[in-house]
Amino acid sequence: MPKIDRKSAIFFANQLRSARLAALADAEAFDEIIHAVERLGSYLNGKLRDLGGYRTAVTSSDVAGVSGLTDLPDPFRTLFTPFAGLYDLVTQARNDALHQGAFARHLTKHAIELAIVLEDALSTYFDPVVSDFMVRDPVCAELWQPLGFIRQRMLANSYSYLPARGDDEAWLIVSDAAVARFLRLDRNGGTRKMRLAVTLRDASQRDSDLLERAQTLPPGAEVREALERLSPKGVLLVIGPDGGALLGILTAFDLL
Fold first, then answer.
1. Among the listed residues 181, 163, 143, 185, the one whose alpha carbon sits nearest the alpha carbon of residue 238
2. Nearest 5 degrees, angle CA 150-CA 156-CA 161?
3. For residue 239, which phi and psi values (nearest 5 degrees)?
């Protein structure tokens, strides 16, 4: 059976995270998480099976068992379902014919909990550097885009921050809080409509607080340094050696 190493852990953790974020955006999008778990199980087993056939490999002490969330003490059993039991719940629900409405949302909830445990377990194989934890290929805002479009992207994907490249090539950050303040400064409906149609460049010229200079880190920076620098800002950009290429984005959410 192939073993988990740093590269495979990063690969599968990223797949699980992407699937989990998709499920958070759609209360019935459990399939992506299940497919990510099945790909992990197939890698570990070396052969194709159904979700139940991967149970032993995925719940083993080398994979899910590495996480401290798999089997918490009895006083917390009302808060956490043991991982093996959670895996069985998802497997049984996945095999059921009814996958819509409240049933699908319940399955999605359990699938998200399953992904969180597996992500935590896989992260133990990472190196303590930001490149292993960052969100790769982040979505960026563009100065020419209207605020209505940027707002839509934030709401559709639960983004709190979007990076943007300034006219001087410096990296900037636009936050959901800054966009909300700009749009709500005047409650007049007509004014709000006009503000939604203003480009990010023009809006930042009207409100200097809309865009702020981003704090950046190299990909090899230690997580300890990132945590210290996250306190005042909340988001860090991971920049390549040339100082220009954006490799990823890092928030406290990614380090939980």
1. 163
2. 50
3. -110, 145
pLDDT, tens digit, 9 for 90 and up, residues 55-94: 999 999 899 999 888 776 666 767 778 889 899 999 988 8
Ordered by start, the domain boundaries in the chain are 6-126, 132-255
Taking the C-alpha atoms of residue 127 and residue 69, their distance in angstroms, rounded to an integer, is: 20
pLDDT tops 60 at residue 97: no
> pTM higher than 0.85, yes or no?
no
Matching residue, tokens 């798999």:
70
- Between the alpha carbon of residue 25 and those of residues 18, 30, 122, 154, 233, the distances in Å are 11, 11, 23, 11, 25
**Of 91, 82, 89, nearest to 37 (Cα)?**
91
Strand partners, 212: 173
Compute the CA torsion angle 30, 32, 33, 38 (nearest 10 deg): 120
Query: Whose structure tokens read 């303590």?
Result: 128
- What's the token pair of residue 107? 């399955």
Pairing of strands 235-239, 216-217: parallel
Look up the CATH number of domain 132-255: 3.10.580.10
Distance CA 92, CA 123 (A): 27
- Taking the C-alpha atoms of residue 53 and residue 256, their distance in angstroms, rounded to an integer, is 30
Strands laid side by side in the 161-165 sheet:
161-165, 171-175, 211-213
Single out the residue of 129, 157, 153 nearest to residue 247, CA to CA.
129
